[in-house]
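Anyone have tokens for Cell division protein FtsL? Sequence:
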Amino acid sequence: MTRFLVIVLLLANVVAAIGVVHARHQHRQLFVELTRLVDERDELNIDFGRLQLEQATWAEANRIDQVARARLGMKFPEAGEIVVVRP
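Reply: yep, here.
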């Protein structure tokens, strides 16, 4: 009977040890994935900041005025060219 109990306890100990090894391996894999995702998030945040800066540059009033004058030939109307339409 004692020999059976020792074998059962030894088997339980081996199963528990294998469970611990598996859990540590899974933890390491998840930690590597977390580190990769954090790095990817940081890169995306940097890209987002760059895009916001680029958008602010393109939407600047002076830039729009320059493009309207240069590419589209637009200009401010003279006083005689302004017509007021009343209902």
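The two ends are 107 Å apart (CA to CA).
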